[in-house]
Specification:
114 residues, mainly alpha, 76% helix
Length: 114
């Protein structure tokens, strides 16, 4: 196989990986939206919460030390990320973002199989 044929298959493989990731993220978004609706949270803010939660959840392994990757620390990190993103909203009740992080974290742990 010529070496340039490998370089031609790499973009196709990358495209499949990106498409798979988008599909997984859409599935996660739908599940988190259901979690949010069950909590009767404000509808216009759910998309922002979900997007921020997914970014934080997906980047946890990259941002944490290998010995510090427990489910509890992951949820605390999720709460910290939501607080950084939405903490200045004066209309949120104290502790509300921690509650959101707990609910989202529980869903994401079950979804990930852990």
């Amino acid at each position: 196989m010529p070496s340039n044929s490998l370089s031609r298959t790499a973009p196709a493989r990358h495209a499949r990986t990106v498409a798979k990731r988008k599909s997984v993220d859409e599935e996660l978004r739908a599940g988190l939206y259901e979690v949010a609706m069950a909590g009767t949270w404000w509808p216009e803010g759910q998309t922002g919460l979900i997007d921020a939660a997914l970014r934080r959840w997906h980047s946890f392994d990259r941002r944490s030390k290998p010995g510090h990757r427990t489910p509890e620390l992951r949820v605390q990190d999720l709460a910290r990320g939501l607080q950084e993103q939405f903490g200045d909203d004066i209309y949120l009740e104290p502790g509300w973002l921690n509650h959101v992080a707990d609910r989202f974290g529980a869903y994401l742990r079950v979804w990930a199989g852990g």
